[in-house]
């Protein structure tokens, strides 16, 4: 079974990690067990050596209160500017992340990895800044004390009695490429402290002096040495694996930790992390939603916080739904080959455990071969961060009043029953009271129902049990009645409460499903990014009961607000950076998260199939709501729907662009096919005529002249054809954006007539343009081309002597221009086809053959002016072309006199 | 036309050839240059009386030749330009060219332009009266008659007509006309010019839609008939 070959998966993982390291900067942590051990000093010393070796070292941030010798070491380094952040009247000095990214040194020194940034910074924590620097491929050297590691946080809190709020997730520490332990003995450290060589902030001096006690320091030192040793062990381990260890991979342990709303869970999670690290095992944090039981909001929030804590500590988090918690946990554990289940011991009275059982017992019963470890549960030293602090659910006074009224009503009913003589059996009286309990449970829930039960027993005793109107009981039998009555009351209240919970959660789920369905349905009905975003914004706002803005990625430009432009979300200065960050990192940011928490909205990325398309910014009146896992899942589902719709829209656009390109391709090839024939004819004539002239055989002067005239005529024809083709292709390419100016129509017609020149010499042309016609807003050269083409068309297709009339008049809000003739008219049913490319109308006079492009060009030009051109057969014979151009409201009127 | 020295600056041998044949046939001495550098050198060696300049040259922009030449010579320059090169035409005229001919062009047209350009380089006596066709402008008396009948012109119309008529045969760009008639600030309001020209034509032309005195140069400006 000993296979000497390296496990390919392990090798692959190593290579991938290596590649990641190549792309990313490496992180080097100078690690100590307390302030004053000389981390910053050592870091600067090492940095000096690196700089002397010619490496590009820049100080990003070093604590300004450094000791003189440290300060001296820092001198001579290039130092990035410090970002000054005004906060409550003081100016906080912070590391400048953008400056670091812009400077791009080889190595960047950033002191105090666990530092919490000033409010309003991009990231909550400095370690997040450092991650971005590393992502940019810059090496970072930093300093860290052992008590700032998240999983050790509570242990150290217990040892030292000083709770440290600034922590870094374990994965950041674990991912460090190099760990340099800076160590001195506690004695030496205390000497330094006495000598005043250690800076302690004034306000914390007292607490910290308590911290600097020899036993504390010894314990901290041990922890830091252990961390370093573990780290070395891991390195050795991974080297060993790489070197094809022959030993089979010991079936690794896999831990599962159960997460609940109990405040003790945080401790259990940290313990699990330590065990997992010690065993070098994967670990999973599992929370179970009991089907039908509606957890109250504070509980849900605590669970969400615990899940996030576990994730920060490197666990894989999972949430399952199930009827029976223990069964669900064990089933999951089996499916994932979990070897140990960790569960917190809850402090519940023995009798409730006896009556209702406990999760721990159930787990042990079900677990079979899986170990179950029960962790001592104790209140978390720093209960889940302030915003979501659990509150006791208040029992409404109103509910209690109604419960009391229900009991009174029951008493009255029972009395009435007795007096009426219908029944005086005590069992019936008890039934009436139980009915009151059931009603109360149904209407108000568990606590009021319990209250009703107790009250019912008391009233029953007082009013109906002899001796009447005392709480004394004559017959011991009644004690049994009371007990059963109370028990039944409590059971009813529990059952009805559960039912209510079920109904509520079903209703809530129903609402969400319906909302999502509605969103999907509405998104399916619209197209266009702005409309999709608007629909999504409206629906999401309704679902969460807040405001929504949708940002779409426009990189490299900053994202643009496409929906909800007039919301507070869009107006807030931090929204744009938060949206930008969300899009760039594919992660949730903003209010309720660790990134840009000062933003007023939560930003959820819109992740499309090939890239992140944008971000959904959501603001609700109660920001705590956004910390709820359920709520975030809903938002993510909405974001996914919108992203899907946007993706679909982009694909549709891409498809239609492809279709347009294909159509343009067809047009182009048609053009080539049509043109090549028309090009060859004049070229053949020119070549033939000129070669005849060069040959000696043509001597007759008249014939020579004829040939020369042919050459000239064909050259003109070629010129015209070429101009038409060029113009058409310019119009096709969309490059002919009309150069709109205010023109006098008469002048345009005049220069068209001038250009056609002798071509119309044989025709009678009449112009009927009123002198007071308004100016037209057109591209003069293009419109002139329209008239030239129409006139040449008339010259070509009508016999000499035909009358051609150009007239213009204002017709409503348009200018109507007609070019008509009394010639033979258009071919039957060709009114529309004449505008097609390469349509050749009827039998044309020999050399008058056109290019078949003239009218197509006319139409393209007129349409570029947002006008229309139509052809018609005149009733009295002949053809009429009508151009309609929109008249502008702001047409200038110029008075000459 | 009296024999003169014509410098042809054009990189296409075929076009140079037919220009050479037709100009020499008219009795002119023809110098040919295929590049901007040669053109400037030749112009310096034997100063031409007229330059025919193609704007698209292989080594440098034709405009550079035009500007370089204009620093020391006032001899007329006629630019050869493509059909859709209105912007180039305007730029060339503004840079000091006298006229342009649109490719492809006939030899007859070119000769007419050359004659016109040469004539106005040697301005005649500062005549008080300008006569064109049926039109007579008496600048001294500020009197305009058509077929002997006096017509009424507004001051601006008169100024416009006089500006055009004083440079017969030459293209005046929109900008030049606006500056001359309306003042230096009005160079963008081309539609004023169009409306006034239309109004003038109605007063002095026999058929305003087929103007013979004030000819439109589409996209460039106006040219007063050279008669």
CATH superfamily of the largest domain in chain B: Response regulator
Give the overall shape of chain A, derived from the CA principal axes: extended
**Which overall shape of chain B is indicated by the principal axes computed on the Cα atoms?**
elongated
CATH class division of the largest domain in chain A:
Alpha Beta
Number of strands of chain A: 25
Report the helical percentage of chain B: 40-55%
Quote the beta fraction of chain A: 15-25%
CATH domain class of the largest domain in chain B: Alpha Beta
Kindly report how far apart the N and C termini of chain B lie.
16 Å
Helix content of chain A: 40-55%
> Order of strands in the sheet with the most strands of chain B?
2-1-3-4-5
**Largest sheet of chain B at a glance?**
5 strands, parallel
| Low-pLDDT residue intervals, each spanning 5 or more residues of chain A | 244-251, 380-393, 844-848
Give unreliable regions of chain B as ranges. none
What's the assembly state of these chains? heterodimer
Strand order of the largest sheet of chain A: 3-2-6-7-1-8
Largest interface: A-B, 26 and 25 residues
CATH homologous superfamily caption of the largest domain in chain A: P-loop containing nucleotide triphosphate hydrolases
Instruction: Briefly note the CATH topology name of the largest domain in chain B.
Output: Rossmann fold
| SS content category of chain B | alpha/beta
Provide an overview of this structure.
The complex is a heterodimer of chains A (897) and B (227). With 897 residues, chain A is an alpha/beta fold. Chain A has five domains: 8-242, Rossmann fold (3-Layer(aba) Sandwich); 254-388, Rossmann fold (3-Layer(aba) Sandwich); 397-501, no CATH class; 545-735, Beta-Lactamase; 737-886, 2-Layer Sandwich (Heat Shock Protein 90), CATH 3.30.565. Helix content of chain A is 50%, strand content 16%. Chain A has 27 helices and 25 strands. Chain A has a six-stranded parallel sheet with strand order 3-2-6-7-1-8, sandwiched between helices. In chain A, helix 17 packs antiparallel against helix 18 and helix 26 packs antiparallel against helix 27. The model of chain A is unreliable at 244-251, 380-393 and 844-848 (pLDDT under 50). Chain B has two domains: 5-121, Rossmann fold (3-Layer(aba) Sandwich), CATH 3.40.50; 129-224, Arc Repressor Mutant, subunit A, CATH 1.10.10.10. Chain B has helices at residues 13-25, 36-45, 62-70, 86-94, 107-121, 155-165, 174-182, 190-204, and strands spanning 5-9, 29-33, 50-54, 77-81, 99-102, 129-132, 135-138, 143-146, 149-150, 171-173, 214-217, 221-224. Chain B has 227 residues and is of the alpha/beta class. In chain B, helix 2 (36-45) runs parallel beside helix 3 (62-70), helix 6 packs across helix 7 (174-182) and helix 6 (155-165) crosses helix 8 (190-204). Chain B is elongated. The two termini of chain B are 16 Å apart. Helices cover 40% and strands 22% of the residues of chain B. In chain B, the strands form three sheets. Chain B has a five-stranded parallel sheet with strand order 2-1-3-4-5, with helices on both faces. A four-stranded antiparallel sheet of chain B has the order 6-7-8-9, with helices on one face. In chain B, strands 10-12-11 form a three-stranded antiparallel sheet.
